[in-house]
Amino acid sequence: MLRDITLGQYYQTESVIHRLDPRVKLAGTLLFIISLFFFRNFLGYMIAASFLFLVIRLSHVPFRFMVKGMRAVLFLLLLTVVFNLFLTPGEALVSVWKLTITKEGLRTAVTMAVRLAMLVVGSSVMTLTTTPNNLTDGMEKGLRPLKLFRVPVHEVAMMMSIALRFIPILMEETDKIMKAQIARGADFESGNLIRRAKALVPLMVPLFISAFRRANDLAMAMEARCYRGGDGRTKMKPLIYRSRDRIAYLCILVYLVAGIWLGRLELPVAG
Amino acid sequence: MSIILDHVNYIYGADTPLAVKALDDICLQIPDGQFIGIIGHTGSGKSTLVQHLNGLLKATSGSIYFNGEDIYDRDYDRKKLRGKVGLVFQYPEHQLFEIDVFTDVCFGPKNLGLDKKEVELRAYDALRKVGLPDELFYQSPFELSGGQKRRAAIAGVLAMKPEVLVLDEPTAGLDPRGREEILHQIKELQTGTGMTVILVSHSMEDVAEYVDRIIVMNKGRILYDNVPKEVFRHCAELEEVGLAPPQVTYILHELRRRGLDVDTDATTVEEAAEAVVKAMAKR
Ligand SMILES: Nc1ncnc2c1ncn2[C@@H]1O[C@H](COP(=O)(O)OP(=O)(O)OP(=O)(O)O)[C@@H](O)[C@H]1O
Ligand SMILES: [Mg+2]
Questions:
Q1: Helix orientation angle between A132-142 and A103-129, rounded to the nearest 10 degrees
Q2: Beta carbons of A184 and B157 less than 8 Å apart
Q3: CA B20 / ligand 2 centre spacing (Å)
């Protein structure tokens, strides 16, 4: 039922991308997303798409899993496209009743859609190839400089890794409670909006109770193991850059330079 | 009137790398009024199997017939089926949500679309049947003890007046006394109403005393399906799949090995005592 949410779900397999240092993947994803907003012509998007495609192929994750994440934002995507298509003033292209599609509108709509799609797929690549633990480790180490400004980096990273760890548990729990209530004749699927919202009460109450119980148990277990924050804590698997990570940084750099240089050229047919 | 499973297979996460075959070619016939025990080691597919009986999970392949009708037919009313096959989940107390026990038990029958009076009548009746004392009816379900919560949750399903009651490990996490009490009440319920009861457990001891028939599951398959006596004959095989026959079975086998001509088929302490007395008399 609730198992098709990919964002934040690791896909277990063996690949170069999986083995990369999480810091590389974090930085790479961030830079990739930023780069999407620099392009001025379709060539830039072509380069970005090819780069993304290449990374996906290297990651050995079936393409279908990447696109799954899209389903969650499909509504947002459609909304963006529709608004941009009809509400951008400019040179009229087609006009039906009171609605007018302008040339500028069409262009923004397509650009936005492409950007959003690549943004989602790009970040899915990261979460599909990196375990949540690895990700927060990378974040903790990558953000360490912020400690100088008294940002509690370790605590934030710990909170994030716990939150991520709890997603599958809570999803399983939701599934279980949902089934139990369906077995008692609950109906989550029919009726109008108000009835459906009401039908969620038998699901949400037990879910919250179980989440609090689990949080409490976890806190207790951590204290029993003498956890007391990040000071002086060492890692079982410290993150160390290897040659493949350096090569990956180089690839990202090449992509950025090429993409932004070519993507900002004034082409005769601007996209 | 019965439930028939015909070559049922179920795979979790089919076409992902994490696919798990949880049920493998299950064929079963469950006639009316039987008290059936399903046992198996952790992960043998017991919970998966019982979730098929009320249509919560849809078999990857194979069919299931309830009273002669295919429950996977497009126009079969699966919502109604859930009223007829009542399923009590593992740790059912996690499904309680209402402000008091009585209202919570009303949830099931209310969903069946009955009128208020009938709903309350059934809830009251069900709470009585599981042996929950009256003064707890209007308490918050979260203030009850573990065993009381368990009873309240079972009442929640019982109030739907199912023809078949399926209980997934109803005694998990209870002390021996609470376990005994709940099982005893279930047995009484079954003999009193003639309801079909299916009891999932991984303790032979629990099951042996009450059921008419035992289904042993192993790795998604049915290993044995027979009366308790016959099943417990396969002592060694049962141990191999991580199950232990009741302790009395061991004792009787040991006695026999040491030369006492005792009937080893007994499955409960009372039967065993009788068998030993008989064997001693023969001497
Ligand atoms: N929601 C699920 N997703 C994926 N696999 C599952 C899921 N539920 C169960 N499984 C797998 O299916 C198999 C059978 O599980 P099932 O819950 O039916 O076992 P069980 O006999 O009830 O065990 P237990 O005695 O521990 O309750 C197990 O290998 C389990 O890992
Ligand atoms: Mg189970």
A1: 100
A2: yes
A3: 15
Q: What residues of chain B lie within 8 A of the CB of A12, using their CB?
A: 17-18
In this prediction the pTM is: 0.74
**DSSP state string for A63-105:** HHHHHHHHHHHHHHHHHHHHHHHHH--SSEEEEETTEEEEHHH
> Is B13 an interface residue toward A (CB < 8 Å)?
yes
Please name the member of A182, A205, A206 whose beta carbon is closest to the beta carbon of B56.
Answer: A182
Residues B134 and B254 placed together within one structural domain of the fold: no
Pairing mode of beta strands B35-40, B196-201: parallel
What interface predicted TM-score (ipTM) does this complex get? 0.85
Indicate if ligand 1 lies below 6 Å from the C-beta of B43: yes
What does the angle CA A38 – CA A42 – CA A47 come to, to the nearest 5 degrees? 75
Residue minimizing CA distance to atom 4 of ligand 1: B12
Long-range Cβ contacts of A201-204 (<8 Å, 24+ apart): A201/B97, A202/A177, A202/B95, A202/B97, A202/B107, A203/A174, A203/A177, A203/A178
Tell me, yes or no, whether B154 lies in a domain.
yes
Q: What is the pLDDT of residues B74-89, one digit of tens each?
A: 888 888 898 899 999 9
Residues B206, B266, single domain; the answer is no
Closest chain B C-alpha to A59 CA, distance in angstroms: 15
The verdict on residue B281 lying in a domain is yes
Does the CB of B97 have a partner CB in chain A at under 8 Å? yes
Tell me: do B207 and B280 sit in the same domain.
no
In this structure, the number of other CB atoms found within 10 A of the CB of residue A78 comes to 11
d(CA B10, CA B220): 9
Cβ–Cβ under 8 Å, residues A136 and A19? no
- Cα separation, B89 vs B150, whole angstroms: 10
> CA-based angle B248:B252:B255, to the nearest 5?
140
Tell me: the pLDDT tens digits for B120-161? 999 999 999 888 899 999 999 988 888 899 999 999 999 999
Nearest CA to ligand 1 atom 22: B47
Tokens 């940084």, residue located: A249
- Is residue A227 helix, strand or coil? coil
* CA B46–ligand 1 middle distance (angstroms): 8
Domain that holds residue B201: 2-229
- Measured from the Cβ of residue B187, the count of other Cβ atoms closer than 10 Å reads 16
Side chain identity, residue A251 = C
